[in-house]
Design goal:
It is a single chain. By secondary structure, the protein is an alpha/beta fold. Helices cover 36% and strands 16% of the residues. α1 links the parallel β1 and β2. α1 (11-22) packs across α7 (234-246) and α3 (112-134) runs parallel beside α4 (169-179). The chain is globular, with a radius of gyration of 19 Å.
Amino acid sequence: MDVAVAGSHGFIGSALVADLVARGHGVRRLVRRGTGSGDRTRSGSGKGSRGTGSSDDGALRANLATAATDRPGVRQVLWDPRTGELDPAALEGSDAVVNLAGAGVGDHRWTAAYRQKLLGSRTTTTSLLARTIARLDSPPVLVNASGTGAYGDRGDEVLTEASERGDDFLAQLVTAWENATAPAADAGARVVWLRSGIVLGASGGAVGRLLPLLRLGIGGPLGGGRQWWSWITLLDEVAAIRHVIGADVRGPVNAVAPEPTTNRELTRALAEALHRPAALTVPRFALRIAVGQLAGELVASQRVVPAVLSRTGFAWTHAAPEEAARWVAAGG
């Protein structure tokens, strides 16, 4: 299999490239001209038995740190979404294009300028990839990053891929992001919107930032802690990407574990795995002081379930929050 990856140097992208290379697949890393290190990428927050979707923990751990662009099976492809530069020949013959590019939702306060950056960094890159794929005689599958933010704040409602979208900023952002794939779909390409939940890993994402506080015993639930958090480990996120490349699915796919949990329960599981208390609650006003309008998303409730992954035979390595927490605490 040959896979082109945009946003290949971020939290999820680096793990994906390492995993693909370890399995003997070819990888084309899309990198911006003059940067030397590729794209800024999403941070991994979107707010089991073995099987066709299972992952190889050992392969991921062993290869993540060394998945450099000069490794056998990996080559760089230059592009520039700002100027529309991407030679269609660079994608010719690929089996899939995985687009993970986009400014991090939690990387900055949501000023008007940064909101525009969040939108532009997603729609510009996605639109260029979709238009380029549409020009190919045999278009590859496009797996485009998205997020469970599509559903908005929905309380205790169980949400599947068939659920209506929300109407807050993140839901609008996701809608524009997914709509930018239209040229590829219109040209007959199979397009998957991977609506990822909170991606758990020790090296990045929302939980990667929370771990140092939990290790010190000063972390705890956010807001009231009763909000539903739909999550997936980095290991299973990578496996889910591989799964949807090969499975006959299109449109929205919720990349989450089969057991959504509350913020309080997930925080408690992480603290217990670290052998630390998690008694301190971070109040909503403190969150707003620290991260501005992002605080509203951190306390939003999204009880998302993976109906499509379950129906198509995906098997999670970490299906329950306790086993996920132990994996993260061990350095996963």
